[in-house]
Amino acid sequence: MVAIEWNQRRSRLNHNDLQGTFIGALDGQASFLKKGVEDASIQEAEDPTKIRTFLHDQFQQWTSLHADLSELLGQFHREMSPRSLFGQLLLSRCDERTKAWLPAVVHELWRIRYPVDGLIADARTKLAAADAIWQELKAKIESTAGVEKFEVFMQFRDNIESLAAACRALGQAIHLLPHRVLVT
Amino acid sequence: MRLLYYNHHEGRCPIDAALQHACGRFGMCRIDLEDGCPSNCLSEAGIGVFHEFPTCWYKDTRRSLRDVLRDRSAISCDGFVAIQISSGHLPGGVEGIAYAKACGASGSRYLVCVEDTVGVGLTGDTAAARERWRAFFDLVLAARSTLGQLSAAEGKVYLENTLDTFIRTPREQVLPALAILCQGYLAVMFCDPSSATDTCVIEALKKMGWVKLVGEGLLAKLGLKPSVRGNRDAVSKHDWWTKVFGEPDSEPDRKQWLQSLRGDFEREIGEARLRLDSGPVWELWEEVFAQQHPPTPALVAAAYRALADGLATGA
Fold it and tell me: Residue B133's closest CA among B228, B19, B45?
């Protein structure tokens, strides 16, 4: 049984927003900075303020993405547990007395059969790791405010690559979460 | 565009919070039909959502929404789609059966009935319900732009085809529901798993995680032990199982229901035929659903094991 809504949100956030847009942009920027290290003409041609603007935009995206992904992970147990099936037909027809115990039992059995708690914890850890890298990068960039030189931005390349790698690991962890409501 | 919204059961079934989030793109106009004629609002709206039982539409005349749509010349905009929703308990015998259909078209006005908002995920102020409404309106908006180019009859068919899969309760539901009831039954009957002697039952209890759950003391820790233990009589009655699948009270209705439900089981078993050993499931079916006998632990355990194997690898 597929939980359409949660999976749709996962697909949009993980595949489209995180892996498609955000990581793609970070990769592009890291690659550009790498080329700048190797080719001085790129440094001369590029307006450094554009790099800062780009990073600023990415940070805004991350803030929003981080909140959305955090919410997505927070909703997993509620929406992907077989307990959620008691809110819809057919199991919504269970009498009230049964609803007092069966959803809870089914939920606990699901947690025992599948490593869902561990998978969510892992995804949360990876989200926190990505966020920590972002915080570090943000602090570095803020400390250089007003110094619009290419060589200043080049020193952020490692952090940008680390952030992209952390986001890839996060994307993989989110992908590993079950794609349907597992009832047995 | 404006969205007309009327909820006769606002106190009992508040759904407008999720709806409001989902229709931010529209101007939303709330009406209270009991206070007056809605024609002014109707003429300005492109979509109407009416949370309503048909007989309550006009308190005095008891006309259905379909009749109103047919009559009101004030509803002049092309492709006006009225969505009549209820929470799955319409009077008139369709209670509980999750289905929806575009059941009326009059001129350029269309009436879509969603007769079970719970079943199709449109109820409640949750992120999921908001997403569901949003997706629903996307479909309706896309349909509206097409409806203007179609005749009323063509438009009705078009709406049916467009919305049908969305507003039907998702398929593949009888086997998962049965699997969950099997777990509940076995949990109650073997609150103490060490009391099981039948090998098939022991295997089923292990497979569903019950042995581990009880062994780790989680049942007691969660305070579930008394409520589980106290249900032996309830789960032993056939109607604890059959009511979940909508068993009607009267015998003629029951025959029809049984036939329809058998069709659902056959379809889902057919879809899982490569993985599912259907024998034990049909044995349980015959005993509990067809014969209305109480189930036995061995029968339930065998059915659960078959379902667990069959559904665990399903798509």
Answer: B19
To the nearest whole Å, the CA of A46 is away from the closest chain B CA by: 40
Averaged confidence pLDDT in chain B? 77
pLDDT at position B92: 36
For A15-58, give the DSSP string. Answer: IIIIIIIIHHHHHHHHHHHHHHHH-HHHHHHS-HHHHHHHHHHH
Instruction: Please give the residue of chain B at the shortest CA–CA distance from A89.
Output: B119
pTM of whole model > 0.80?
no
B94 contacts in chain A (CB < 8 Å): none
Q: Which of A77, A86, A100 is nearest to B188 (CA)?
A: A100
| Contact (CB<8Å) B228/A101 | yes
User: Alpha-carbon distance B265 to B175, whole Å?
Assistant: 7
User: Closest by alpha carbon to B98, among A2, A91, A97, A180?
Assistant: A91
Cβ within 8 Å, pair B227-A100 = yes
Q: A182 and B119: CB-CB below 8 Å?
A: no
pLDDT digits over B17-42, tens only?
A: 777 777 777 777 776 655 445 555 66
Partners of residue A12 in chain B, C-beta under 8 Å: none
